[in-house]
Amino acid sequence: MKYLYYPGCSLKSSGKHYEISLLAVLQKLGIEVEELENWNCCGATNYMSINENYALEITARNLGIAEKQGGDEVIVPCAACFMGFLKTQKYMESESGIRDRVNQILNHSGLSYNGKVQIRHPLDLLVNQLGADALTRTVEMPLKDLKVASYYGCQLIRPYATFDDQWNPHTMDDIARAMGATPVDWPLKSRCCSGSMTSTMTDIGLRMNYVILKEAKSRGADVIITACPLCQFNLECFQGKISRKLKDDVRIPVMYFTQLMGLAMGIPAKKLGLKQMLSPSLVLN
Amino acid sequence: MPVNEEARVGFYICHCGHNIANMVDVTAVAEYAAKLPNVVLSRDYKYMCSDPGQEMIAKDVEVFKLNRIVVASCSPLLHENTFRTATSKAGINQFYFQMVNIRENASWVHEDKEMATLKAKDLVRAAISRVVFHKALEKKKVPVNPDVLIVGGGISGISAALTIANAGKKVYLVEKEPTIGGYMAKFDKTFPTLDCAACILTPKMSAVLKHPGITLLSYSEVSAVDGYVGNYHVKVTRKPRYIIEEKCVGCFACIDACIFKEAKFSDEFNEGLSKRKPVYIPFPQATPQVVLIDDKTCIHFKTGKCPQTCAKACDRNAFDFDQKPVVQELEVGTILLCTGFQPFDAARAPYYGYGRYSNVYTSLEVERLVNASGPTGGHVVLRDKSKPKSIGIIHCVGSRDEKTNKWCSRVCCMYSLKLAHLLKEHTDAEIYNFYIDMRTPGKGYEEFYDKLLNEGVHFIRGRVAEVSDWAINDHEKGKLVIRVEDTLIGMVRRIPVDMVVLAVGIEPGKDAQDIRRMFNISCSNEGFFLERHPKLAPVETFTDGIYIAGACQGPRDIPDSVAQAGAAAAQALALIDSGFVELEPNTAFITEELCCGCQVCINMCPYHAITFDDGKGKSHINEALCKGCGTCVAACGSGAITQNLFEDQQILSEIYGLLVE
Amino acid sequence: MNASSSEILTQGLTVKLEADLDKNFGETIAREAHGEKLFGCIQCGNCSAACPLSVWMDYTPRKVIAMVRAGFKQEVLSNRTVWLCASCYQCTVECPKGIKITDVMYALKREAIENKIYPKNFPVPILARTFYSEVKRTGRINEIFLLTNYYLRYNIFKMLGYASLGVRLFMKRRLSLFEKGMTNRKEFRSMLNQ
User: How distant is the Cα of C166 from the closest Cα of chain A, in angstroms?
Assistant: First the structure.
């Protein structure tokens, strides 16, 4: 089965280590992916705030490319892109006016989206399709005694995603368990990280990230794992600033779930983008 | 258009105030109908159902020598009987009447007056072409069996049973649980008077048991229903208790002697807050006072290797480990369904942490906690035995929510107030009520709310978003934090408490759909049993002789359930005392000369109304059992079966009239 | 009553005159948010309590809905409240009446941009608009260009606070000036300009 792959802008820059580790893990599992040709930005929340038509059109363009490129499924690792893809799919499916208008626009570029390509998050693929047992079999260095706080954030699991339980998500916990680690149960696993507010309403953004880091740490977590480049960026890159500003040391390794998997699967650190991290990352003994 | 020379049709179209006249041009329809074949007279009138309207028909019959009547108005469900009676009074057989529904089928469902009028004309034309071929028929009278079946022994079933039995009728009360009493038996106090629930319920329970007119079939379920109004045949399956009911006196010696020295299994009556043994009695005042064995946990049934210490302790030889389900057949004339509700499953609202945090309770669990005969003897203590110093009661759990149940469960505001009062009394804790809208319509209810407002209970208007153990300061540490907007102030509040009570709503019983099918009644969208009319026939169903009362029809509290039970009992008694029922003559009959004896119809009939006469080699339809569904008529290859009121000529003329102008 | 006495009676007070409301505002927003059941809101406040940002808002989300359907257009659109919505959809999945509150917030943001009455020199809409034009220009986001343009529009001095973070990311090759971009930007732009 051919999997198409939509990285999105973050996985090519500040979230580069997500792409590196994801591709390394998929390769080790024997899953081949093919990047969409000439994909564009998904528009994130900003396009929806300014012009809904454009927001739907640019995402539909990516879906149109996927259909043209051929393939049943497109893997979308970034939580915001993933949600935007699902939203566009939903709108085009349920509102014929939108479907016709958007496809008319796409036609000019020789594209159209007819709902053929399915949208999948890597967590869905790994946990629901391959299954935790298959993942366990790939483990070379079980992450024994490691306490992992899975942080799902918001758009990965709601409002459209169906691959996980939106009230009590567990797919990343399943992965942590499969890698031999111990998941930490904590109440903030799907509380918003503030998104881009760390750059706009800095004070609010930092406080929102503070409570998440603080709670994970106080529940005894050794590491936080995420599946969203913005969550990971906020929690990782601002934790020093937060600790200094709010006079409370909340520093803790914040990694992508794929990096954690890679470590357990014995993939070398270099291939997991661990060197590109700013905060202390996990060191295996 | 088919013509019957002898037919003289009088046609009447009703304005129904503005209900019809606003969307259908009634004068135009009347003028149109006047020109149709066989029509002698055509009138429009403001309210045909009024006395002057009915008298007009009688006068016209006399003056114009009419012998067929057609009225175009509302639904036959509402007024067919009115006009049939008026026709009959005017001296014509009542089946020479035909009704056309141009309200529900035209004026209420269309927005284009011209098209609605056109549709009304079509419907009228169809009725007129059919009525000319109507035949004179007589309604058949069938005696009503005076015995009554009541299904469900909660407060509704108990009340109805006593009312009907006190009127001298025989009642069979079937209860699926080992004891009657229903949910009310679990409650501590009742709102707004704070009477002790057991004190007012248990006398009724023992009255049921002692009443010579009531046969109580506990631990039993109805398994089949057959027959028709006045003459139902019912099969009741009696589940094995493994105790001979007549011999047991409820001395509990067997329970003490059980091989399990300690009670180990979840006690349903106490909502799992305590344990019971495999041989048990649900609660001290259980009625009947008979023990039973739970064969899923009993060692004897699991391994066959139990010394049966229980049976040995019984000095009345009441044990019978070989008991099997027994089917008992009943003949009754009327049936009352009082099958109740089920509480909303709090786990379906995961954001409130039920099952995740041990100090989150459902309201029903708290009813047991405050009850003197409950698992803690009436001491309100948490699962870790500590006494809560602060308690949050969350209203509308599983109510007024599109993702769970849309409706208001009606009782939760009041029982939450009651629990707030009782918890305050038992613990002196700080109590917070979180409500969306406070609904206290009822005698003395608002006064009860007023009392609570002055008792120092806190009221916060807002739907709680989440209960979690996420603490942001020492004050919150170790507590359950309730996050809510105080909408009257416009600020989000975080309220740490020791105990959370979820005021779970009322939803249809999990077997409601099975019951609906078995008794051939309907459910409304949400799954509660559907009444015949929401205002004017609230305890009747669309199946004659079957009545509903209590929370199986919709969420309601004890006073309303008892009132409804009384209403249902009165309806049943009225039917019984009238002595007979009139059956619609729309039954089918077989023309023997045409019947080839193939017996196809016999297997098709859903009511087992057709038998085969071996001597004649022909099929025969029992008119009393035939419900007029028409299946056999359509199935008969020889065209030997005819159905009254739906003869070929009548149906074909109606279709012709509908299609051809 | 003449205009001046109306002013005397209302300025700065907790009173709102019918004449000052936009009666169509609720309908407009409901339509923009795809037939949202705004008018079915029972004001239970679940959205406000579920929202991780409501504590910083001037009006709680529940109040915003009440104001929208009552026609308080000026107050809602000129306020920063809707721009604090981070689109985390917690309110949407919890609303007992099935109102997609996040989509209502989006509709309000778009309405504010269209009417040009969003709060001025407030960073969130500035970032949104910068992001919008960056994507329109190149098809993808380069974080260096995005943030530089954003701070140029908003407040260049604020950028200094992020300089060291930027340099560290640059050194780790997590920011780059020369990312591989789209090869057919022109076609992308012309699609949007149709």
Answer: 10
